[in-house]
Every structure is written in C-alpha cells, then in structure tokens.
Amino acid sequence: MLEQAAHPAPPPLSLTVGRAHALRFGRINLEVRQSIPAWRQALILAGAVITGMAISAALLIAAGVKPRALLDEFVVETLTDSENLHSILFQAAPLIFVGVGAAVAFRVRFWNLGIEGQMIWGGIAATFVAFYEIGPPVARLPLMMLSAVLGGMAWIMVPTWLRLRLRVNEIITTLLLNYVALNFLLHLVYGPWLDPKDAFPHSPQFHSYERLPEIGWGLSSALVMALVFTALAAWLVQSTRFGFYTRFVHDNPRMALAVGVPIKAVMLISVLLSGGLSALAGFVIATAQEGRLTQSFFEGYGSSRCWWRCCSSAAAVCRSSARYPSPWFNSSRRSS
Amino acid sequence: MLQFIVNWLAGTPSFAAPYALAALGLIIGERAGVLSLGAEGFMLVGALAGVAADLELGGYPAISLAVAMLAAAVVSLLFALLVVVLRVNQVIAGLAIVFFCQGLTSLVGTLAGWTNRAIGGLHEVAIWPLSDIPIVGRILFTQNLVVYLTVPIFFAVNNILSRSMLGLRLRSVGENPEAADAVGVSVPAYRLGAVVAGSALIGLAGGYLSVVDVKIWIPDMTGGRGWIAIALVIFARWQPWRALFGALLFGCIEALIPRIAAAGIQLPQYFLLMTPYLATIAVMIWAGLSKFGRSNEPAALGQPHVREERR
C-alpha cells in the first residue's frame, strides 16, 4: 500500500531563476476563438466601422464642426440626394478594384503595398496609348485597358521576382517602388506630357472615345467593370483549383510544398492579378473620372486598401468559407 | 573638387543621424521579435511633438527632443498593445499605425497651428581645437549635438544588447520565446519594453529631423525615411554598428542630391529624387544575394508568442 508521501515544498523561485522576472498579467489569458459564425463576424465588422466613424466624428466635433451639420452632411445628404449617391458610386469603382487587388495578393501572403505605384503605372500606360494615338479609335479604349493591365503587371513583377528568387522582403520593395513611380509620374506630367494648352501638370485631355462611357441611370461603366471583376475574382478564389491552392499556400506553405502544390506559380499568378487589378483602378480613374493623367490621382487609395482588403475579402470574395483566415478576426495566432 | 567633397562629407552625418537612430530603435524592437513597421508613423509623431514642444515650451531643443521621444513612446504603446497583448498580425498592425499616425499628425498639426512655423533649432558646435584640422576637422568635429550624441548612444545600446543580462534576455525573447518563457523571462513584458524603448529612439530620429535639421513641421515630412530605416536594419543584419555604417551610406547619397543640383550639373530632377529609394532596393538586393543574407535574423521575428500553443 502506497502512502501518499508528503510533497516536498517546491524549491524557492530564487533557486530556479536568477531573479523573479515574471511580470504576470494575473491569471487572465486571451485566447483566439476557433471559429466565429458569419453573423458575429459581420457584427464585429459593423462595430469596428461604427467605432471608427464615431472617433472621426468626435475629432471633427472637437475641431469645431457642428454635430447637426455633421449628421446632415454625412448621413442625410449622402443617402437621400441622388447626385451624391451617384458620386459615391462613382468613387467606389477604383476602391473596389484596389480592395480586390489587395485581397488577391494578401491571400498568398504577399504583402503588396505597392498598390499606389501600380495604379500610377496603369494610368501612365493607358495615357501612353492615348498620347501616341496607338490603334484605331474603335479599339482605343480596350487597348488602353490592356496596356494598363500590362503596365501594372510589369511594375509588380520587379518586387515579385526579387521575392521569389532572392527572398527580398516585398513590403519594403513594393512600398519604395511607390515613391519611385510617383517621381516618374511627376517627371512625365511636368515634362514630356505637360498639357500645352494650359501648362498645368497634367496630360492633355483624352478624346471622347478614350473615356469610359456612362450607362443608364447615371451609373458609370467603371462601376460595372468593378463588379464584374469582383465576381470573377470571387469565382476564381472559391470555385477553382487555383483558388484552393491559394488557400492552401496561405494556411500551410510547408505542407503545400510537401504535397506538390506549385507554390511559386500560384504566388506569381496571384500577385500578377493583384498588379493588374490595381492598374485597372488607375485606368478607371484616368479615363472615367479625370479624363487625363494628373499628378495626384492615386492619393488615398493606398491607405484605404487595408480596410478595404478586410471588407472586400470578407464580404465579396469569400463569404462562405468559414475557415477563411481573415487577419482581423481569427488567425493572429498563425505565424505570418 | 576637394572643396565639394569636403562639403559633401561634412553634410553627411546630419543626413545620416535620423536613419541611424531610427535603425537602432528598430533593431531593439526586432531583436525582441517584434517587426515594427510603424517606424514611419513614430518618426512623424516625434517630428510633430518636437516642433510642438519647441513652439509651446519656449524653444529649448533638449526639451523638445525629449518630448518627441516621449510622444513616440506613448503612441508606440498602442502598437505594442495591439501586437503583444492582442496578437494582431504585426505587418497589418504596423501599417495601420503608419496610416493612423500620418492622419493624426496632419490633423493635429493643422488644428493646433503648428504647421509651417519655423523654429530655432540647434546650431553646429565646433569642437575647438580639433575642428581646425584642415579636412577632417570640418567633417568630424563641426556637427550638431545630436550627431555627436549618436555615437555614445550606439555604444550604450550595443553594450546593453550584447553584454548585459537585460540584453541577453531581450535577444532570447526574439530568438526563441518558448525557451525564454520556460526559464521565467516574461515575454510580453520584454517585447513591450523593447518596442517602447525602440520607438523612443525612432521618435528621437523624427524629432531630430524636424527640430534640428529642417526646423519646421510640414505634414508627411519624413518622406519614406522610416521605410528606408526598416530596410537598413535588414541590410545591417540586425547589428547596431552595421546599421550605423548603412546610415552613413544613405546619408552620403541623400547629401549628394542637393549638392549635385547646386553644383550646376544638369540631371533630371525627379530621377535624382528617386535615388534614395533605388539605393535602398539595391541594398536589399545585395543583402539577399550575399551568402550571409538572413543568418542573423531573430528566429522568432514577426511571430506572436502564446504560451499555450505549440509550434
């Protein structure tokens, strides 16, 4: 019969560790939920959006804007006035392109922060076709679109190749190439492509057949394009083997390598798609909104992409995949 | 020609100091395993805080720089809480902090009227009699105080990192947080401390930029220096003295740009402006090609640590 021997007193902490360094945060542990139902994800997202807007509203009120005027401007006028609604939808198209482009790249863990640079090159390539009058007027617009996509893809090819071949961190390269693209744009609009009519730093105005047309109800075809490309991207990610491979590469790259998924090809194609979509955003702004190449058409889209990436990916690209590792929600514990 | 070179080299440390200090702050954080992409944001916060303190508190550069460090440390607390306690993806959190800081500094600078107001700043201090030596004196001994202080700061941080128990534990947290946790080192505390301390240095770099160098606050005045500092850390293989060398290299390039234009050499303006960024990319390519490339990277860089999870 074994008697329970009295447990010896645990050795004092000072014997095991030089000094007690432990700064414990009590017995509270933060754990990540394994799975969240879709309604709760939507609720969290809505809550985040509302909190952000509340903070912005608080800042504006502190800066002296009257609350009544704020409510009028942002809620009442925005939603009820048809012209305001029209311009919201107008502005949405490039944002949609940028969001989907970012989502496609982030899915394979390629942190494409060069979206603004790719937008710039999309605009430059499209303007190149318009400036040098390449192709008959009938085919001009599709040619501009094609060259924009090729321009964006070429621009993102540099950091991609560096990442795939030399393992150079793409965060820095894509980001710094933004600045390089910006300087090149400034060189163009202040130099060879300066508008001779008014000497402002923008390219000459596009012809009417070089602009994206409006289609009924005041909607721009840019928005339709954006929705079509979003649907295509959603189909690609959800219903094709390629989309499955991208999910695989995101979740467990080592297993994907072991099983024989062509990781580099998958990454390359995803990133090129991302570059093309961002370039289309630039193309859309240049042809639909501005009608020429201006010096700051890309501003602001870079910072919206993070938020849009979450929104567009959660809502548009992968609604049904319950295990979608959206970084805001549930996979912070997975190594990035 | 000699005069051109002497002037150029004399201007280099002033351009190199923000890169060096920011890279050092990043090294402290990254050695503890936290990839801080918010460097650009913290530099902006430090820059604005420095100018604000200078305008509001009477124009003493020392106080302004101290306030810059404090402000950046406070903002980095937000980032540290996101990344260490809530374990948000470090890349995304860093980017979000950068955009947050860019917006915040622009807004606060405009609201409080600190934008576009010139301040006194620091003047160069010539260490007599050493500064009278023909060439070297001008280059090495006629700089402002912060540049002189950078070297002792590097010595101090390098000693703490590589030769003290505090530094050893910090490095262990970055290499293998599970092992450090098993020994009793508190991983969250060390990571938090490292991020805040590193960000104080980054804030100092930003404060130097606005208070001492340019002597004014303009929205978005750092112009990508934070990102270049991040690339510098990779180039320096996470070692302080190599980071100083890299910072001097970048200071050289950046000091050259206005001097070429001033010397009358005609080069397309915007292509000249591209050179720092292209140089950074070239440096990263070189670091990727060299066979020592990533061997010094802290093994747990960018990975959140949760005691209950096994990898």
Report the portion of residues of chain A in β strands.
Answer: under 5%
Rg over alpha carbons of chain B: 20 Å
Beta-strand percentage range of chain B: under 5%
Number of discrete helical segments of chain A: 12
**Reading side by side through the largest sheet of chain A, how are the strands ordered?**
1-2
Instruction: Report helical residue fraction of chain A.
Output: 55-70%
The largest β sheet of chain A comes out as:
2 strands, antiparallel
Average pLDDT number of chain A: 79
Strand order of the largest sheet of chain B: 1-2
Q: Outline of chain B, from the CA principal axes?
A: globular
The N- and C-terminal alpha carbons of chain B lie at a distance of 60 Å
Task: Characterize the biggest β-sheet of chain B.
Answer: 2 strands, antiparallel
Mean pLDDT of chain B: 87
Q: What structural class is derived from the secondary structure elements of chain A?
A: mainly alpha
What structural class do you assign from the helix and strand content of chain B?
A: mainly alpha
Unreliable stretches of chain A: 16-23, 310-336
Q: What portion of residues of chain B is helical?
A: over 70%
Detail the topology: elements first, then pairings:
The complex is a heterodimer of chains A (336) and B (311).
Chain A (H helix, E strand, L loop, with lengths): L12 H4 L21 H25 L4 H14 L1 H26 L7 H17 L5 H30 L3 H21 L23 E2 L3 E2 H19 L1 H11 L1 H7 L3 H28 L10 H17 L19
Antiparallel strand pairs in A: 1-2
Helix pairs in contact in A: 3-4, 4-8, 4-11, 4-12, 5-6, 5-7, 5-11, 6-11, 8-9, 9-10, 9-11
Chain B lengths: L1 H30 L7 H18 L4 H25 L4 H22 L13 E2 L9 H5 L1 E2 L1 H19 L1 H11 L1 H7 L3 H28 L10 H11 L4 H23 L6 H21 L22
Antiparallel strand pairs in B: 1-2
